[in-house]
Write a sequence for this structure.
C-alpha cells in the first residue's frame, strides 16, 4: 500500500531510535557501524531502521569504495515544518483571542473592584 511522503516521514520520526540516528547524522556522515554503536540492538536491527529512514527520504547512502556513508536529508523535515506551520498559525491565533478575552475579563473585574465602597 502506497503512502504519501508526509506519512512516511511522520512514521519514521515516531521511533526514538530513528530520531537518535537522525540526531547523530546531523553532526555529519556516518557508517552503519558508527550509527549502531550507541544502541543495544543488532546490526540487522539498525539496518531496518535505516531502511525506514531511507524510504522516508530522511537519509541517503553514498558510496566511497567499500565505505557506504549515511547522510541526513533535510527536505522531508522542511515539509513537516511547513505542514505544522498552518497549525502553529491556527493555535497562535486562538491563543491571541484567548489572551484578549482574559484581558477583557480582568479589566472588567478591576473596574468592579474600584466601584465598591
Amino acid at each position: 500500500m502506497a503512502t504519501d511522503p508526509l506519512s512516511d516521514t511522520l512514521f519514521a520520526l515516531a521511533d526514538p531510535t530513528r530520531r537518535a540516528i537522525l540526531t547523530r547524522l546531523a553532526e555529519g556522515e556516518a557508517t552503519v557501524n558508527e550509527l549502531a554503536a550507541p544502541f543495544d540492538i543488532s546490526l540487522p536491527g539498525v539496518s531496518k531502521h535505516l531502511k525506514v529512514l531511507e524510504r522516508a527520504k530522511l537519509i541517503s547512502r553514498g558510496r566511497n569504495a567499500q565505505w557506504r556513508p549515511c547522510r541526513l536529508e533535510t527536505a522531508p523535515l522542511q515539509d513537516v515544518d511547513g505542514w505544522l506551520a498552518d497549525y502553529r498559525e491556527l493555535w497562535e491565533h486562538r491563543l491571541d483571542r484567548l489572551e484578549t478575552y482574559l484581558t477583557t475579563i480582568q479589566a472588567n473585574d478591576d473596574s468592579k473592584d474600584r466601584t465598591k465602597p
Notes: The mean pLDDT is 90.
